[in-house]
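User: I'm writing a tutorial on reading structure tokens. Could you give me a worked example: one chain, its sequence, then its tokens, then a sentence or two explaining what the tokens reveal?
Assistant: Sure. Here is the example chain.
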Amino acid sequence: MGEGTGDGRPTAGRRADALAPAAGAVDHVALWRGINVGTAKRVGMADLRAVAAGLGLVAPTTVLASGNLVAGVPTDRAGDLAAELRAAVAVATGVDAAVLVLTGDAFRALAAANPLRRDERPPARVSVAVAEVPGALAGTAPPAVDLGDEEMVVAPDAVYQWLPAGVTGSPVPAAWWRGLPTTVTARNDATVQKIVALLDDRAASRG
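And here are its predicted structure tokens:
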């Protein structure tokens, strides 16, 4: 877990009020794609926080070690934040990895809309693949294959999956993912819920 706690809480050693952005900043979520998977593209979460702080983001906090960052973005900030984060991380670490950025409210909405969450289902077997371009998945049909016990719902902003056999056991062809009208970045629902909990904690600390 690196800099996070084993149960997914934010980085230790910070007061709750230190996790919240100041007035004039709006919490955003940044999700890196493909880092710290096996031995490839290893990036420390401290590096992500340092890069975010260097770009002027407020109270950057990471969740787990899979490239999930919550930070306040000043409301008067201009520019392509995702592109800036990607470039700055590449300079700082030598790792070039795509990153998706969305507002905290948009992330909460995607989490709340998950139609495949069930009390009896392990959250680690429920996947949320977030579209890089909001709304771009509208009208996209699931793959024409026998999914067996797996379930999939393609929404305009995300692909939701119940993966009883895990990601590696999914019958969804790689070609289907490659053919989507936008790239997607996936997280399991356990991670999604941890990020939402952090967003809620930060909002509560602002009063």
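What the tokens reveal: DSSP finds five helices and eight strands in the chain. The chain has two domains: 16-108+191-205, 113-188.
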